Amino acid sequence: MTSETKSNLARLGLMIAVYLILAARIPSYYSQPGIAALLDSAVLAGIIAIGVGLTMIAGEMDLSVGSMAAFAGILSIQLFPYGMVPALVIVVLFCGLLGALQGYCIYKLNISSMVFTIGTLIALRGLTLVVSNEKTVLIPFENIAETDFLSAKFFVFSIPSATLLVLVLLVDFFSRRTLWGREIFAIGGGRGEARAAGVSIRRPIIVAFSISAALAGLAGALLSFRTGSASPLGFEAVLLEAVTACLIGGIALAGGRGSILGVLIGLFTIRFLVSGIAALGAPFWMQSLATGALLIFVIIAEAAIGYVTRRRRMARALTA
Amino acid sequence: MKLRISMTLAASMLAGLMATAAYADSKGTVVVFVPSSTNPYIGQFQLGAKEKAAELGYDIKVIENNFNQSEQDSQVQQQLASGETVAGYIWWPFENAAGVGSLRALSQSGAPVIVSNQYPIKGTEAYWTAYAGANDFLSGKTAAEILLDACAKADAKCDKGAIIRFPAGVSAGDDRATGFEDAVKGKLDVVDVVPTAGFLEDEGYKVAAQIIPARKGELTWLYTQNDSLAGAAAQAARENGLTPGKDIFIVGGTCHGDSKHVKSGEIAGTAIQSGYWEGWMAMQALGKFVVQGKVVDGESYLEGTPDAPPSDADPLYKYNFLPNPAVANSQAAYDAAKLWGKTADQLCNF
Amino acid sequence: MTSQDASQRAKFTIPKTAYGLIAILVLLVVASVTTPSFARVDNIFVVIRAASLTGIVAIGMSYITISGNLFALSASALGALLAVLFALLTAAFGFAAGLVLTLGLAVFCGLAQSLAISLIGNPIITTLAFGTVFRGLAALFSGNSILRIESEAALWLGTARPLGIPTQSWAFIIAALLSWFVIRHFKIGREIVLCGANPKAAVASGLRVGLVTAIACAALSIGVAIMAIMTVSQFSQAKADLFMGYDFDYIAAVLVGGIALRGGKGTPLQAALGAVLIALLQNFMLLHGLSAGVRMTIVGLLVIASISLFHILQGRGR
Fold first, then answer.
1. Which chain A residues are Cβ-neighbours of B10 within 8 angstroms?
2. A147 within a domain of the structure (yes/no)
């Protein structure tokens, strides 16, 4: 068993523990519609976390995803009269293009993406306010039933939650089994070494940021269609939730380590915790404290395990 | 040390979870969806709803979101999926228009849905049983009346002025501004509408301290949408050598936690908008519907009587508005002001 | 890179500050030509007052950045917590004790974070986690109500104008000069710069990396405490939802000031200038009546443009 598998199993254990503790108190945690609702609640942060996770694996971080999702939400509702599928395709492509442009700038300037995307985070939010005329936009009420199929459940899955799971599998496969995906890992692991080995920096950076923006756009559009509306101020909190999901899921901020499947585990750990505390009727500060405590617990545990493994390896090297 | 902190946190959290579990036999559970009680007004709303629910014999469960509509949407999904039979829902959407999808889902469950705080959007009438809560248009109108009154009494110039409004995109800000502008049309001249970055004093001060000096001599009044922003604007005016109430008239129109500027006369007056009574009347509306089984079409402005709250036997209308009784800007007037048996001090200084 | 050429580079930071000054001057000229009410002296004071509190936090944040710890995401939540604590302590023990205890608690929160950063090795994750805890604690301690204080001394601190200049602006100017002086002329200041320039070499050459992180975190916490105390004092009250969503404002000021995120470069003075530049632009747009959306877009573009420009000027590579 590789250490990566071991660490993912430990995270899975944590997720299951959180689930069981709360399921003991909340009956809907093990009913079919309850599980479907839990899956649905993970769609927004989940789809976005895949993209953010990918940029983190590349040793970068896309902070602009929340603004990008809000921008996509407004655009998709405004394009609704042309049909939902064309609107979705246009919005996702446009966001992907913006992301590619962002990736290109980051590559070309050779600038830290965390700096650059703070700028786009602010500018895109402003742009969203401008295109929405500072008002929430709505699908006409007579058409709102047309979006019902997005909430319909097949067993425990809805179209959005099935999309999330399929995307996780696809991107996981992409990142580990294709050349373009492995390049993303390579430049995250060590940029100097990657460059020396002849890996181009340009393509993986552009690809990672383009996917991240396209997925943020997809999440924003899907969620806005499902609720039949989009607010220019929406999706502000999703960045922190997505990043937290990535961190609990074992993606190292330094890059090169982690997996998209891990992100899914981290995501559901958070969702189980936050939805559960809210469903029990506890005030918000408890959700806030619990999330913070969980994150601190995970990172301290990681640091401790890392320390022990290093010690043991050193001891083994000495005795050998 | 970290570990001990997180263990203490975990322990206190568990204790909290246990505490919420004890339900007694009752007429059923009412589920309330609200933004976070980190905001004291929402804390008051919850308190009012809880006390009325206890009086009527209902259990109550409050589900908070951190000012996040997508989180609130998923909480609704989660609640509906629980299959729990509930006596009804109280729905305070964080983002009014963006919450329509969830409102519709709640209505499809068959339980009565009382919308509160956010004036429902036209066309959504089929999705809710009744509205019981504040009226932001009315709040803007009341503010305008207070201001016009102050202008008429004082023998000062009163024409051009500005609105310092809630952040761009916040619908309560749109509604209050509309209510105010409709009421002052032809009487006052609105030269500027500037949004703040938030609802509290520091944000209000930031905007007021910039536009007052830049338009000194031009601005004769300011409407700020709540008293927190108004108090900050009064401070900024004073720092620029303007005496509020003489050189410039400032009105917030809803009391919001700090009455000292009203009592001192710096703000032209205020109106009681009580989070406590808003939560209380939302719960009362639900109770009325369960007992009476019907909703009368039309609007009802509940009477702002000083002593007793309205009776549970009154009919339930489609729209039931919380009264916004105006309070004059003096210590005496403030001390005398009461709504439904609670003093302005109790209702405003939470 | 050796620590030697890092210190040589640090000597070139003065011209970088000059770029910020030039940008401010250009904006001033353009603004005063196009906006009559802008050029008045009192409006300049207004702009500095508007930049003050954000600026004080940005100065603290610049210590984090210069020391090579990128940035902290817990500043706004810590601000809310300290505001609530200051109000509670002042109500219980009086203004002076409240002030001292709040500053002490701020330093404690800073040291706790620096300890965790040293242990975990990542400032962003650590401060992300601490931020959610701080906000939760603020709500818990405030009991979801508005905490009022009645203290003449606090009111003076919040509203007085010695020599016609608001106390907040005094604090801003003093904080900027003091923190610049510490970075330039104290041994620990040079260590902060060297640690940021090359953390690995810093360990090897016996620099006190742990101490540097602790000082940087404490500096930010003190900046945040000053903002919280000033705000509570000005309005005589505190709430748990203060400063919500301000984190990126502080970071934007640091970035617009041209402090390189990779650390080891720049001075706190640049963060102060960055805050003033943003406030200047905001004021200019406010007086022109631009909508909130347009203003936000332009500030975002300013951040992108200035970081790109500084990045190119400082030589490429991260």
1. 293
2. yes
